[in-house]
Specification:
alpha/beta; seven-stranded mixed sheet; two-stranded antiparallel sheet; 9 strands; globular
């Protein structure tokens, strides 16, 4: 699509963003360890639901195939003998994926269709998604908030826990049901696909509208993609499910980057993407 080519120059250039990715360790040598990544690939190959996060792969993925896929999509070492240290994300792959992400946002804005945002990393990524939601709303897209306040029972390492589905600045997340001050709590970390399934089911039961695009991470992107919705968002190298979904055509786009750095480090990415999509306000 040619829309981004005619835009005014971005406030964050590709070169500047590449430098930021490396400095903030969003790409390059990242905080995720090789041990974490390899353990995740083993569990995914064993079809552990904690790593599938809502995805139902069409084919069998062995550990070596997953490692080869992640090397191709993210730039991690393809050497199975490399078993320790910090993992690596190729910043050029991140930039290319962010450009493709911007194209999808531009198409969504052009159509003016409804969109749904959600995150399992509210402490880190809420501001990133909120900036995108604000821009798409200003462009005429309805930012959906279905099933707000609905209870969602999620299995955690502490057992089954009840959470409440909430939206902050148009971004879906879950909060612990026993939180004393839920309005001040940033939300709970989760990989579960149950929040997005709950939201989409509520939207369907209400007769719509249903989202034309779901933007999120973890179970939000995999759960939505598995249900047939166009879904895109960032993913870390120890979360192979979005990249497997992308390879199989279930997830539209997975952007490789570390999802555990400071929340303000993601804001230059939002500015870059919005300028590439001609959605800067």
């Amino acid at each position: 699509m040619s829309r981004t080519i005619a835009c005014v120059p971005t406030t964050v250039t590709a070169a500047e963003l590449r430098a930021h990715l490396l400095t903030a360790r969003l790409a390059g040598v990242v905080g995720t360890t090789r041990e974490e990544s390899l353990r995740s690939y083993r569990l995914f190959a064993a079809r552990d639901p904690r790593l599938l996060i809502g995805l139902d792969p069409e084919r069998v993925w062995g550990e070596r195939e997953l490692l080869a896929l992640m090397a191709d999509r993210c730039g991690v070492s393809a050497d199975p003998a490399h078993t320790f240290g910090h993992d690596v994300i190729d910043p050029e792959r991140t930039l290319a994926a962010l450009d493709a992400f911007a194209e999808r946002l531009a198409v969504a804005a052009e159509r003016g269709g409804p969109v749904l945002f959600g995150t399992g990393h509210p402490h880190r990524l809420l501001g990133f998604y909120a900036a995108l939601a604000d821009a798409l709303s200003a462009a005429g897209c309805a930012v959906l908030t279905p099933a707000q306040g609905r209870c969602v029972d999620i299995t955690t390492r502490f057992g089954l826990r009840t959470h409440n589905l909430d939206y902050v600045r148009g971004v879906g997340l879950v909060r612990g049901a026993t939180a004393q001050r839920p309005g001040c709590e940033p939300g709970a970390h989760t990989h579960s696909p149950l929040p997005v399934r709950t939201a989409l089911a509520a939207a369907a039961d209400a007769g719509g509208p249903l989202p034309e695009l779901v933007i999120g991470d973890h179970g939000w992107v995999c759960g939505a993609g598995q249900l047939g919705f166009e879904a895109a968002g960032p993913a870390d190298v120890n979360d192979p499910a979005p990249f497997v979904g992308e390879a199989e055509g279930t997830v539209s786009l997975a952007v490789p980057l570390d999802d555990g750095v400071r929340s303000d480090y993601y804001l230059p990415l939002a500015r870059y993407v919005l300028n590439r999509a001609c959605l800067s306000q």
